[in-house]
């Protein structure tokens, strides 16, 4: 079933939007490209997603970026062929997030080529991706750097 999700972006989007950790946090996968190269995620403005300063809770901002680069890589590289995990992440809060927030994720062909090349011999790869979270006016709210672990499954090395 998991492999099937990475062949059908629309089904993938629907399943992700029902996944309890995202659904109950007000995080919604708004769009995903047919080739899994890009996605857009929104964080809804809800009373339970606000912090004491009446801006979006920082943990929610961090959560809205959590699974997406790994999942996009699965869609591009193949769930059956690769092991992909989050290794580390860093968030830089730039300005208060008021209202609905948006994060856009993009994978470039050069990044995918580099990952394939670095893992072809069975080695581990630790690509870094940066995602920017913006408010509805386009103001930068946070910059998140995510480092992933990517390696071919043993049977493909």
From TrEMBL:
Taxonomic superkingdom: Bacteria
Cited InterPro entries: DUF4442, HotDog_dom_sf
The protein, known as: DUF4442 domain-containing protein
